[in-house]
Fold:
Amino acid sequence: MIVMSLIATVFFGQAATADCRQPDAAMLAMPLHDFDQTPAGWRSLDAEGCEAVGANAIARYRELNQEALAGEELGTLIWHEGQLRAAAGQTEAAIALMLEGRHGESDADRLYVDATVAFLRQDRVGLLAARERLLALPTPDWFAAAVERYKVNYPDHPPPAWPLNRDKVEGYIACFDQPYREAYSCDAQGNAQ
Structure:
């Protein structure tokens, strides 16, 4: 038992936390939207120190539902698993997952992936270059209408700004020396949110 605990600690890059909630069969059988986008799915497992449990739940969900998942749905799950692995300190696994779906993304999303991977590799030059390319993207014609729809559907939230995910990239730069979890929620002044 002690050997298994040590193996889990080494494999996951962190000590196993006894308080981590584990996925159950009902969670793994949820419809994709519920599993990926609601607090009842994998997000209920995403407590600090439990990121590997959430990542493993997503991997298991993908395995169990591989025939039903396709395209953007699969890409979103892979990205979220990558984010959790990054937060768990499983950097190489996170990078591999994040790069897996990069080719099918929009220009803005590809540059966000590039910035995230550069951050994880501690490549400040690559991160700054990805940000410059992201900032140079022209605003697409459809964006203004999408912002208006967002304002109607989510009046209590700030509307998205172009380029998408700029705030995350600026946070990576401001909190470059912090772990992924902190840098992801860092504002441009270097303050964790």
About this structure: Residues 111 and 132 are 9 Å apart (CA to CA).
